[in-house]
């Protein structure tokens, strides 16, 4: 009887436990060193990743606990904590996803309605009044997935581009090589959305086309990138026409398309994708939680990075809702360093205020005579931004090389502020104190750039600081410093927009100098230069 009862007892199932010791795609099994999701997706399971490189001048630097680095020539000087204004609530979600209606709002009044578009000889096509242009006539729709579990199945040869993205593109773009960044989440997300997979493939192929070697192979990758670029645009159109509410994938795809344009050296269409991403953010504002969802914070800060630097080069105010910038200035997030772009979100937000100050002053000048400008008010606002930038304190746990990168962005923001004030000032004042400030922070900027080895991961964030240094240098040796750094940076990270930035600087160095003459030069050439 006891034996019979024993046989009838149900077998107790062993509880499954998840371990965060595998790749970010899933959780590694404690039994085998290859995880389940990686096996199904055909990906390489990465059990461990290398730590952030911290090397300086060819020697190893230990990651140090720092109290913050000042923007002066002494990088060890402590700085007081930044005081910031309070945040305001975000926009509400529209009942109907009418993105074109959002374009008519004040901050998008200068832009045509369009989610994303490319260089196409075809006429524009609209779906739900959203303009999306396809760059290729032969970019056909993907065939339907054979299994509902994965809406997108890789075609022959595409898995190598996913592997290339994981092993090369991430290392070229990420300044923090860990597994908790949004970059690693893109691969599993891409298998659930056709437009995201095509955008990811286009991004990887575009970067692969920049690798030196076989010219024919590079051209093949470039053509494949263009084809996937077109497929991503058409898949985005389809998703929007079906009122797809997966806003994470939609926003990610538009930002990847912008990154693809910059990778190939584009100087216009990348910003159209940023406009589309901004429209999606405004439409899904109530769904976005940047305080508690790390991936939302990753997306918004990545868009913020493109928005601010685009506003600098295009001489306009940022288009992203100001509540996101106010939130960053208020310091509601514990970590302000973006794992991909390296820029401090607070510094970017203060740069957004500089762009806003510039646009408002130019509008006021257009309405009235120069003598009617309230320079005292303008300089008061500029002094407030300057004080906030100089008093901003870096996180104590920030690695040393990231401190140097952040300081380079701080000095760049101050240089741009002084350029804006110099242009607004015109001939009203002849004190020359702005020129003295520029010289001081230019010296500081060059020092911080020189301390970041181009072979290290954080160096990928140095394009904007190098460009701002190039707009200020006058001596031939300083120009050669910027030129050589940009060329070396391109050899390391392989993004063609670096060469576009250098080309713009070379033309500017041969032109008559003025405070913001480089902005006018870009406008005359019809360039929306991407410094991301």
Q: Please list the strands of the largest sheet in the order they lie side by side.
A: 1-2
Q: What would the average pLDDT be, to the nearest integer? A: 74
Spatial separation of the terminal alpha carbons: 76 Å
Largest sheet: 2 strands, antiparallel
Rounded to the nearest angstrom, the radius of gyration is: 25 Å
* Uncertain spans: 16-22, 24-29, 47-150
Shape: globular
Order of helices and strands: HHEEHEEHHHHHHHHHHHHHHHH
Total tally of structural domains? 3
What helical percentage do the residues reach? 40-55%
Give an account of the 3D structure.
The chain is an all-alpha fold and 532 residues long. The protein has three domains: 15-48, no CATH class; 55-79 and 306-524; 99-288, no CATH class. The protein has helices spanning 2-8, 36-41, 99-103, 158-173, 182-190, 194-208, 215-241, 247-263, 269-283, 294-314, 322-330, 345-367, 375-391, 400-425, 433-450, 463-472, 476-493, 497-509, 517-524; strands spanning 55-56, 59-60, 125-127, 130-132. The strands form two sheets. It has a two-stranded antiparallel sheet with strand order 1-2. Helix 8 crosses helix 10, helix 13 (375-391) runs antiparallel to helix 14 (400-425) and helix 18 (497-509) packs across helix 19. The radius of gyration is 25 Å and the shape is globular.
Summarize the structure.
With 532 residues, this protein is an all-alpha fold. It is 53% helix and 2% strand. The protein folds into 3 domains: 15-48, no CATH class; 55-79 and 306-524; 99-288, no CATH class.
């Amino acid at each position: 009887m006891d034996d019979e009862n024993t046989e009838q007892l149900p077998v107790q199932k062993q509880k499954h436990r998840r371990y965060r010791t595998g790749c970010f795609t899933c959780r590694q099994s404690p039994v085998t060193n290859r995880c389940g999701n990686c096996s199904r997706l055909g990906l390489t399971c990465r059990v461990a990743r290398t730590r952030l490189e911290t090397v300086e001048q060819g020697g190893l630097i230990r990651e140090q606990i720092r109290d913050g680095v000042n923007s002066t020539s002494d990088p060890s000087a402590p700085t007081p904590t930044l005081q910031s204004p309070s945040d305001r609530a975000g926009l509400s979600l529209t009942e109907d996803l009418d993105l074109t209606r959002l374009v008519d709002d004040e901050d998008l009044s200068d832009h045509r309605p369009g989610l994303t578009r490319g260089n196409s000889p075809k006429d524009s096509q609209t779906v739900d009044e959203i303009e999306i242009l396809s760059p290729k006539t032969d970019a056909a729709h993907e065939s339907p997935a054979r299994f509902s579990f994965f809406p997108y199945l890789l075609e022959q040869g595409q898995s190598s581009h996913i592997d290339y993205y994981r092993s090369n593109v991430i290392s070229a773009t990420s300044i923090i090589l860990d597994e908790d960044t949004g970059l690693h989440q893109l691969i599993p997300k891409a298998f659930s959305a056709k437009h995201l997979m095509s955008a990811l493939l286009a991004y990887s192929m575009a970067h692969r086309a920049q690798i030196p070697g076989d010219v024919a192979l590079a051209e093949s990758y470039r053509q494949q990138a263009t084809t996937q670029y077109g497929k991503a645009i058409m898949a985005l159109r389809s998703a929007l026409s079906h009122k797809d509410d997966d806003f994470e994938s939609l926003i990610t795809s538009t930002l990847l398309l912008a990154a693809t344009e910059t990778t190939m050296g584009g100087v216009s269409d990348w910003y159209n994708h940023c406009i589309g991403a901004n429209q999606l953010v405004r439409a899904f504002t109530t769904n976005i939680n940047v305080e508690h969802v790390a991936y939302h914070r990753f997306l918004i800060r990545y868009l913020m990075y493109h928005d601010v630097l685009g506003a600098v080069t295009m001489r306009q105010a940022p288009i992203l809702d100001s509540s996101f910038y106010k939130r960053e200035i208020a310091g509601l997030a514990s970590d302000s360093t973006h794992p991909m772009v390296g820029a401090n979100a607070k510094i970017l937000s203060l740069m957004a205020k500089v762009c806003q100050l510039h646009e408002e002053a130019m509008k006021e000048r257009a309405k009235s005579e120069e003598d009617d400008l309230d320079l005292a008010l303008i300089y008061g606002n500029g002094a407030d931004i300057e004080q906030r930038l100089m008093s901003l304190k870096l996180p104590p746990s920030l690695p040393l090389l990231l401190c140097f990168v952040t300081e380079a962005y701080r000095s760049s923001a101050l240089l741009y502020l002084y350029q804006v004030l110099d242009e607004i000032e015109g001939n009203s004042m002849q004190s020359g104190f702005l020129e003295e400030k520029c010289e001081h922070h230019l010296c500081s900027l060059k020092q911080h750039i020189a301390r970041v080895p181009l072979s290290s991961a954080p160096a990928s964030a140095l394009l904007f600081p190098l460009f701002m240094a190039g707009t200020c240098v006058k001596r031939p040796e300083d120009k050669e410093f910027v030129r050589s750094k940009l060329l070396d940076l391109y050899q390391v990270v392989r993004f063609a927009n670096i060469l576009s930035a250098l080309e713009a600087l070379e033309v500017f160095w041969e032109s008559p100098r003025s405070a913001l003459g480089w902005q006018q030069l870009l406008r005359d050439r019809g360039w929306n230069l991407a410094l991301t």
